[in-house]
Amino acid sequence: MTHAVKYHPGMMLMEQYVEGTLSADVALAVATHIDLCPHCQRLCQDLHNDHGSQLAQLEPALSHNETEFEQMLAFITEQAPQQKPVKRVQGEMVTVTINNREFKIPRALSRMAQQHGKWLQLGGIATAKLPAGDKLHVSLLYINKGTEVPNHTHLGMELTLVLSGRICDENGEYGAGDLLINSPDDTHTPHTKADEDCLCLSVLSAPLKFNKGLVRLLNPLQQFFY
Amino acid sequence: MLESTALTGHHDNSRVTTRMPDRMTISAEPHIRSGQWEDALTFVAVNADKAAYAELFSYFAPRLKAFGMKMFGNEQQALEMVQDTMLNVWKKASLFDASRGCASTWIFTIARNVRFDMLRKKQSRKDDISADDLWADGDYPEQEDSSSDKWETMLLSEKLAPHFDSLPPAQRLVMQKVYLEEKSHQEVSDELDIPLGTVKSRIRLALDRLREALDDTRS
Fold this sequence. Notes:
The structure holds two protein chains of two kinds.
Chain A: H1 11-19, H2 24-36, H3 38-57, H4 66-78, E1 95-98, E2 101-104, H5 107-113, E3 120-122, E4 125-129, E5 136-143, E6 152-153, E7 158-169, E8 172-175, E9 179-182, E10 187-188, E11 198-205, H6 208-211, H7 213-218, H8 220-225
Antiparallel strand pairs in A: 1-2, 3-4, 4-5, 5-11, 6-10, 7-8, 7-9, 7-11
Chain B: H1 5-8, H2 23-27, H3 36-47, H4 50-72, H5 75-91, H6 103-121, H7 131-134, H8 146-155, H9 169-180, H10 185-192, H11 196-218
InterPro entries (chain A): Anti-sigma_ChrR (IPR012807), Anti_sigma_zinc_sf (IPR041916), ChrR-like_cupin_dom (IPR025979), RmlC-like_jellyroll (IPR014710), RmlC_Cupin_sf (IPR011051)
Domain ChrR-like cupin (chain A): 136-202
Organism (chain A): Alishewanella longhuensis
């Protein structure tokens, strides 16, 4: 990768991701970032090792489970072990096509990306929902070359992971792997440069406001981004 | 080893004969030796060794339960997590790759994934995000060469240790960092400032040499 990832998830997000306590939607963005970022791959490995040793050093609870454990052990060893490693299907890189451009999708996102909804286009911007979100809205966001996303203020949290290409806002430039987190009240005007488009994974928290029909009707742009 | 007698005692003795003889010298030591659980996993992977598995079980099951109690706060779910996790350890031992972390790390990732999927099932949808999406490590998708992997784990039984000295210095250095200092391939690559591919190929070369050396001692 020629581009060095500059914007990483914070340590707290990484910790929660490794523990498995992060909300699945956000974890999906973090996992996809890690696929694109060698630095965070190592960090992630270190965190896993750390949790592994913590588990090994855990003081076992004074157990009243002797019988249960014996039954469990007997049950398990009656099962047939897998003799050969089951391999994930390799070599088939998942791609997503929009605006006649084909984008490769990182491993963590590939199963979800294959199930993306219909692309909705508005000017140079297109979004396609992913089925993933429960509390948050997860979608692919494509921004054509030389396009400006109308200035918006976040009513909730906005998490944007650049999957390919480059996008800029008032605060800087973001390339593949960079993770931008905007909290409520952050205002920005993201745009692409004249010569490079951009595909992102977008995770948005959905304030109740957006779920009420009337606001949606009054604000087609908001509806579009959800 | 000794502490697992209570768990294995009520079973028939036939499985004891499946154990490799040199394991006896290793397991005679009552302390937790570094590499002990990695060895045990290797024996489970190679010949479904129930005694080695019982050792792993008697150490990790109570700790996994303590971990589960912390995460779930109730015993029933904690025990469900222990059973699913330890069942995966039994079934998938052949996927364990010591070069990518030690046994406790691997078992932690399995427990974490089991717990994650247990919680997700409550709001279950088929298209839901699963642990397999989020954590690649659990099933080692990068595994390309299972025969060399098997040899990598076999190494840990220390059979090949005496042959280390006969390796070319560059290969020996990489092997030492990966197997004795338990570093990941990536860490070794960074530390020696050589490409990851070189680390992997030196390991493969060294394994080939060691395999040869072992064949010679056998014949």
